[in-house]
Design a protein that fits this description.
Order of helices and strands: EHHEHHEHHEH
Strand content: 15-25%
Helix content: 25-40%
CATH topology: Alpha-Beta Plaits
Strand order of the largest sheet: 2-3-1-4
Bound molecules: adenosine-5'-triphosphate, magnesium ion
Number of domains: 1
Largest sheet: 4 strands, antiparallel
Radius of gyration: 14 Å
Number of helices: 7
Shape: globular
Distance between the termini: 21 Å
Number of strands: 4
Length: about 140
């Protein structure tokens, strides 16, 4: 059965551009309830740990540098079929390939600086949410 929670980050490029509010508004208007939310900044080591699964990929070093380059907003989102529906809402990794109206089409700058993160499975949503929020911080 599809789970009802996913995890997202508004990435440093979108935070620096002042688009956190626009992005959170679009998320809420698309039927997601924000169950946890914080603005924070990852150290290089924390970003490396978060993206551990991508360690072998050629862009890993650049990705870790970028994700620790500025503040981010981390959030847990609730909705039926949350993981899949949120991936649809954010659009393709490369904004040039993202569908019109998706968050990445609207706000991403490049395949790396692509405005938002969205978990790719129920298991990862749980792990990633737990990386940022204790049980007491999830409502
Ligand atoms: P996310 O996990 O952030 O939601 P995604 O699942 O669409 O994105 P992944 O393949 O998991 O994409 O890649 C993680 C992140 O690494 C991307 O969102 C992007 O910031 C960066 N990235 C992915 N592919 C490339 C690439 N070819 N060049 C540079 N950066 C990349
Ligand atoms: Mg991913």
């Amino acid at each position: 059965m599809a789970g009802n929670r996913t995890f997202t980050m508004v990435k440093p490029d979108a935070m620096a551009a002042g688009n956190m509010g626009n992005i959170l508004q679009k998320i809420e208007q698309s039927g997601f309830r924000i169950a946890a939310l914080k603005v924070t900044r990852l150290s290089h080591a924390q970003a490396g740990a978060f993206y551990e699964v991508h360690k072998e990929r050629p862009f890993y070093g650049e990705l870790v540098k970028y994700m620790s380059s500025g503040v981010i907003a981390a959030a847990i989102l609730e909705k039926n079929n949350a993981v899949e529906d949120f991936r649809k809402l954010i659009g393709a990794t490369d904004p040039a390939k993202a569908e019109a109206g998706t968050i990445r089409k609207l706000y991403a700058k490049s395949i790396q600086e692509n405005a938002v993160h969205g978990s790719d499975s129920d298991d990862n949503a749980k792990i990633e949410g737990g990386f940022f929020f204790s049980a007491l911080e999830q409502f």
